[in-house]
């Protein structure tokens, strides 16, 4: 009889010990939220050497932007097919500042997703990427501000290529080709403008290619 009472006592104790486990509430399940990434450049055409800023917004299906994970700016230069990561922000929605395209370049921003930490729920945010956008780059032409001696340089990489000089009496229209000169091996050009009577308007420019847009500057001379 004593043995039976001991066994019953052990069983009762075991049941009492299991009761708190049966009554415990289940942990709240994690959620995975979709995200959207929107990127917009401050300019879509710049001169070689200029910079742009890329405004960025990362939103989620919760109605609030995620604060975990990183966003990476990817670039694909004209004439190439590969995307290259050029900058990463540790805060998902931070803008990319001071981006300097070296030629016409297509960009996109990729948000890598992330999981909340330090919370009971630990929600997850799915990756997303922006629509690609292109920033065109035109070559830079240096030139004097006055006089008949035109000297300057075309950058970048404009070795032994044509510079076209056009002229018109009307600033708005009617330009005709006057001369084509070629740059030297360093991209420098020089040309003496003819001393035409009256006021003349000039356009000095270079054509574009798959990497750079065409560029030109206006000039004015007067002889009375």
Task: Tell me the overall shape.
Answer: elongated
Task: Determine the strand fraction and express it as a percent band.
Answer: over 45%
Quaternary structure annotation: single chain
| Structural class label | mainly beta
Distance between the termini: 135 Å
* Radius of gyration over all CA atoms, rounded: 34 Å
Largest sheet: 6 strands, mixed
Order of helices and strands: HEEEEEEEEEEEEEEEEEEE
What is the helical fraction, as a range of percent?
under 10%
Mean pLDDT across every amino acid position: 89
Topology, number of strands: 19
Note the total helix count.
1
Low-confidence stretches: 1-27
Organism: Nocardioides furvisabuli
Keywords: Signal
Protein name: Bacterial Ig domain-containing protein
């Amino acid at each position: 009889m004593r043995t039976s009472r001991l066994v019953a006592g052990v069983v009762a104790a075991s049941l009492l010990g299991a009761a708190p486990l049966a009554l415990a509430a289940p942990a709240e399940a994690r959620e995975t939220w979709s995200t959207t990434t929107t990127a917009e450049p401050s300019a879509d055409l710049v001169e070689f050497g200029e910079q742009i800023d890329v405004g960025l917004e990362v939103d989620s299906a919760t109605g609030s932007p995620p604060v975990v994970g990183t966003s990476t700016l990817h670039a694909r230069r004209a004439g190439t097919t590969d995307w290259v990561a050029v900058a990463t922000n540790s805060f998902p929605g931070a803008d990319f500042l001071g981006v300097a395209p070296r030629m016409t370049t297509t960009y996109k921003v990729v948000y890598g997703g992330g999981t909340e930490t330090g919370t009971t729920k630990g929600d997850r945010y799915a990756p997303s990427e922006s629509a690609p956008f292109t920033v065109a780059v035109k070559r830079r032409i240096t030139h004097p501000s006055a006089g008949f001696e035109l000297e300057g340089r075309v950058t970048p990489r404009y070795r032994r290529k044509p510079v076209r000089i056009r002229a018109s009496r009307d600033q708005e229209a009617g330009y005709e080709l006057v001369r084509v000169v070629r740059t030297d091996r360093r991209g420098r050009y020089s040309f003496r403008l003819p001393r035409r009577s009256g006021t003349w308007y000039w356009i000095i420019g270079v054509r574009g290619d798959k990497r750079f847009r065409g560029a030109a500057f206006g000039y004015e001379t007067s002889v009375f």
